[in-house]
Design a protein that fits this description.
The complex is a heterodimer of chains A (250) and B (628).
Chain A (H helix, E strand, L loop, with lengths): L2 E9 L6 E9 L5 H11 L19 E4 L2 E4 L13 E5 L6 E3 L2 E2 L2 H9 L18 H11 L6 H5 L1 H4 L11 H11 L9 H6 L11 H5 L6 H18 L1 H13 L1
Parallel strand pairs in A: 1-5
Antiparallel strand pairs in A: 1-2, 3-4, 3-5, 6-7
Helix pairs in contact in A: 3-6, 6-9
Chain B lengths: L1 E4 L2 E4 L3 H12 L4 E5 L15 E2 L11 H11 L6 H20 L14 E2 L9 E2 L5 H24 L6 E5 L1 E9 L2 E9 L5 E5 L2 E4 L20 H8 L4 E2 L4 E8 L13 H4 L3 E3 L23 H7 L15 H13 L9 E4 L6 H7 L1 H11 L8 E10 L2 E3 L12 E3 L4 E2 L10 H23 L9 H13 L6 H15 L6 H19 L11 H25 L17 H4 L1 E7 L6 E7 L5 H4 L4 H4 L5 H13 L1
Parallel strand pairs in B: 1-10, 2-3, 2-11, 3-7, 11-18, 17-19
Antiparallel strand pairs in B: 4-6, 5-6, 8-9, 9-10, 12-17, 12-20, 13-16, 14-15, 15-16, 20-21
Helix pairs in contact in B: 1-4, 1-11, 2-3, 3-11, 5-15, 9-10, 13-14, 13-15, 14-15
The chains are: A alpha+beta (250), B alpha/beta (628).
Chain lengths: 250, 628
């Protein structure tokens, strides 16, 4: 049942590195992360890789497999031919720490730049009343496991380091949309989304949606509606005023 | 060496750790959160079903007393009753508070938080978000930490002035000043550089020990770090023999064996069948639960729509019962081809409903096993899931016996007795995370002088040792052998000879672990990290095996083939583990559990207590009833 696979894994630290070739056993039902673990246990004990749950729930084992941003734990070996060489490299958008581990602190900085959930001052815990249909929109975005594959694939920053200060990336633009659609949030982040976090840079090529392991429709359900809300606010004072009054009433 | 001073250091950034840190910071303490993984990746994300809290949103008959009774029953009355009381009373507030921090739970028709059925809970009680409740919890707490940092930035110009996350940083030793905690020593995974925290209070929130077993639902982080750190610092562990094997882990393909299949599948209507197609759980209803569970399929099926007039299906018995039943069916030759049993929801709910209620299960089986759960049954079997045992703490404050040491969540012991009910973990970590954070803050306030840490050089030498050896043992091999040993010899069904054998193997593995060598540099070196984690896994495994060998009865997450029944005498006894500071020897001692407070014991019927208590305790009960 098992066979020997050819793996080519990026190894290196301190800004230097190279692809290293390995021949490694593969068994039925295994995923790429299993094979990386076998390399650690038998051939390369110091091979660095992030992982936690190995069940597609934590978003730690993000890597590029044959150039495609994927979770190592959700990429089954049966999707490759047995004689195919599988190339595993670290996320390209972030600086490499060692081997497959990158410095993703960019994402945590961006997370902190977005004003947090802001409920009305007069609603006490336990008094929140929301309809399922009204929470479902934001719930879709809260499925995000923060694997940062969408951040990694987005061409605005993938090969454009210079855009990083002015662009939060799909994950955090989606966070703004999530809060904007939260039934109890009263803050307005539309101007911020456009002026500070670079919503305008997104030209809806949907690469983020394509790589999302949670199948969140980032572009269609978060980014495009957010763009529309920004435009509405900017060009239609009545809509802007109406939304303010509506929020205050509720 | 890098040094930091804090009031409170929280080790672990899962639900308990984050809730503790939030509390300490809200009480004005400078707080550090130290975690082995990235911020927001902790094992809590894997919790699926929900957080149990008697809000009574779905069934208004629910209240804290019913929840308390269910928890004590689930734990077979071995629970620390004060913890079970606090937990049942405070869980609703802790869940509602999350909503004010931005959490979006699924809703009832009247707009409240929806609650779902789960094993051992009398009423629908679990606040949930589909089957990804743990993720919602961790994200909400993570975002609450960020919100506090934003507040601090406005107030002090520095977001990290009062609460800072040290991610991918592993603590290897607690530091002391005399008898009291004085800080912690660790290394940055990223660079291998060492780091010292000087702090009068440390909260352990490191989770469990599952990585000592081969078949487990736990992530790599679950190496028993907090359990071991506490032992080495002089604290005590209780209930270490009680390990929960979740009845439904994936069994195929081999590489995913052990990954969790949420209990919600059964709560929402899924049934267990053997290879003959029989719903076998009807054959396994134990005497203590006889009057609470349906005895026919018809009644069980009616219960889903009419809970007032029918009893619950036996698939929803507490986890220990279901796990043993599955084990017995497979042993009797009525298992599925890959050595599990069938869990079927496809014939019970419409496909669209399955996808809506169990989206991540649908996704997980499709992606990892090529199984469409809307069309065919899953194959499932028991998997090592949770340790009921942990640091012995004061119920109200989370304080351990070592001054300045606190623990909350899975790393603490007592709350769940011999078996935890599903859904009681997420509520546990919120309730006791907050209490431990508050306990640590109050302790810091009570001090007049700050302790000075000692033992830093020794900790450094210990951490460097594997890198300085050449030609030693491969840590991956030692780890694998430990996992096999625990799985085969101290697993779901236990025998004296096998546990004694396990203890002999552990002794040999301890020697081998001391001789582990790690090649490569100090930069992000998993082989080195594992060599250091091995100490913790071995210490904890020794506690589990020793306590399990000593307890000569079967109860909850401890089943003895050679002592198959529950014993009222053993119910009164806790087994307490302690270690020498170098960890070379573990001692296990018996300790009598205090009697339940009279207003709490009166919540039970005598006929139920007769199944658990000694004659002497029943006499106390009678006296309490008389007095009232």
């Amino acid at each position: 049942m098992g066979y020997k696979a050819k793996f080519r894994v990026w190894r290196g630290e301190g800004g230097e590195g190279r692809l290293e070739d390995f021949t490694v056993e593969v068994n039925e039902g295994e995923v790429v992360l299993d094979v990386i673990h076998r390399l650690q246990a038998t051939q390369a004990p110091d091979l660095a890789v992030r992982w936690n749950c190995k069940a597609g729930k934590c978003g730690s084992c993000s890597m590029e497999i044959n150039g495609k941003p994927r979770l190592g734990c959700m990429t089954r070996m049966s999707t490759f031919d047995e004689d195919e060489t599988i190339t595993v490299t670290p996320l390209r958008t972030f600086p490499v720490i060692k081997d497959l581990v990158t410095d993703v602190s960019f994402n945590y900085r961006k997370a902190r730049e977005i004003p947090s959930f802001t409920p009305p001052a007069d609603v006490k815990p336990g008094e929140y009343r929301m309809q399922q249909v009204d929470v479902e929109r934001s719930q879709e975005f809260r499925k995000c496991i923060e694997c940062f594959l969408c951040q990694n694939v987005c061409h605005v920053i993938r090969d454009h380091e210079e855009n990083k200060p002015n662009f939060a990336g799909p994950r955090y633009l989606m966070r703004i949309a999530e809060l904007d659609m939260h039934p109890y949030d009263v803050a307005d982040r539309k101007e911020l989304a456009q002026e500070v976090h670079g919503l305008g840079y997104c030209n809806i090529t949907k690469c983020c949606t394509e790589v999302c392991p949670e199948h969140i429709k980032i572009t269609d359900n978060a980014l495009i509606p957010m763009k529309e809300r920004v435009v509405d606010k900017k060009y239609d004072p009545l809509v802007w005023l109406g939304s303010k009054i509506f929020k205050r009433q509720r | 060496m890098e040094r930091h001073e804090y009031d409170v250091v929280v080790i672990g950034a899962g639900g308990a750790g984050l809730r503790a840190a939030i509390e300490a910071r809200q009480q004005g303490k400078r707080t550090a959160i130290v975690c082995k993984s990235l911020f927001g990746k902790a094992h809590t994300v894997m919790a699926e079903g929900g957080a149990a809290a008697a809000m009574g949103n779905v069934n208004p008959n629910d209240n804290w007393m019913v929840h308390f009774r269910d928890t004590m029953r689930g734990g077979k009355f071995l629970n620390n009753w004060r913890m079970a009381e606090l937990h049942a009373k405070e869980a609703p507030d802790r869940v509602w508070e999350l909503e004010a921090w931005g959490a979006l739970f699924d809703r009832t028709k009247d707009g409240k938080i929806s609650q779902r059925n789960f094993g051992g809970h009398e009423y629908p009680r679990l606040a949930h978000v589909g089957d990804r409740t743990g993720l919602e919890l961790i994200r909400t707490l993570q975002q609450r930490v960020v919100a506090l940092q934003q507040e601090d930035e406005k107030l002090h110009g520095d977001p990290e002035a009062y609460i800072k996350v040290f991610a991918e940083c592993t603590i290897t030793r607690l530091l002391k000043d005399g008898d009291a905690i004085a800080g912690a020593f660790g290394y940055w995974r990223e660079t291998g550089d060492f780091i010292v925290f000087e702090a009068p209070a440390v909260v352990l929130a490191t989770g469990g020990i599952g990585k000592s077993y081969v078949v487990t639902s736990n992530s790599w982080e679950y190496t028993g770090d907090g359990h071991a750190l506490a032992l080495l610092a002089g604290a005590k562990l209780i209930n270490m023999e009680f390990i929960q094997f979740h009845p439904t882990g994936m069994v195929w393909p081999p590489s995913v064996r052990g990954i969790l299949v949420t209990e919600s599948v059964r709560g929402d209507g899924g049934v267990l069948r053997n290879s003959e197609g029989r719903r076998f759980m009807f054959d396994y209803i134990p005497d203590v639960f006889k009057d609470k569970y349906a005895t026919t399929e018809e009644e069980a099926d009616r219960w889903y729509t009419d809970q007032a007039n029918n009893r619950r299906p036996p698939e929803l018995l507490p986890r220990d019962e279901v796990a043993r039943a599955i084990n017995a069916e497979v042993k009797a030759g009525r298992g599925s081809p890959q050595g599990g049993v069938y869990l079927d929801v496809s014939t019970r709910l419409p496909a669209a409903e399955i996808i809506k209620r169990l989206p991540s299960m649908h996704h997980q089986f499709k992606e990892l096993a090529d199984v469409d759960i809307t069309k065919e049954p899953m194959q499932v079997g028991p998997t090592c899931h949770y340790i009921m045992g942990g640091v012995e703490v004061d119920a109200d404050t989370g304080a351990a016996s070592v001054p300045g040491l606190f623990a909350a969540g899975e790393v603490s012991g007592g709350m769940h007795g011999s078996n935890r009910l599903g859904g009681n973990s997420l509520s546990d970590l919120l309730v006791f995370g907050r209490r431990a954070g508050a306990g640590a803050a109050a302790y810091v306030d009570s001090l007049t002088t700050r302790p000075k840490p000692t033992g830093i050089e020794e900790a450094k030498a210990e951490a460097l040792a594997p890198l300085q050896r050449t030609g030693g043992e491969n840590p991956y091999e030692v780890h694998h052998e430990l996992q096999r040993t625990m799985n085969d010899l101290v697993g779901i069904i236990r025998k004296a000879e096998e546990m004694s054998e396990a203890l002999q193997v552990i002794e040999k593995l301890k020697e081998r672990a001391k001789n582990c060598a790690s090649t490569g540099s100090r930069i992000y070196n998993p082989g080195w990290h594992l060599a250091l984690d091995l100490r913790n896994m071995l210490l904890v495994s020794e506690c589990v095996a020793k306590a399990a060998l000593m307890r000569e009865e079967s109860r909850g997450g401890h089943t003895r083939d050679d002592f198959p029944t529950m014993s009222p005498e053993w119910r009164r006894k806790l087994l307490v583990c302690s270690a020498t500071p170098d960890g070379t020897s573990i001692t296990v001692e018996e300790k009598i559990q205090p009697s339940m407070r009279s207003d709490l014991i009166r919540l039970f019927e005598r006929s139920e207590l007769e199944k658990y208590l000694t004659e002497e305790e029943l006499a106390e009960y009678d006296a309490a009833v008389k007095e009232s």
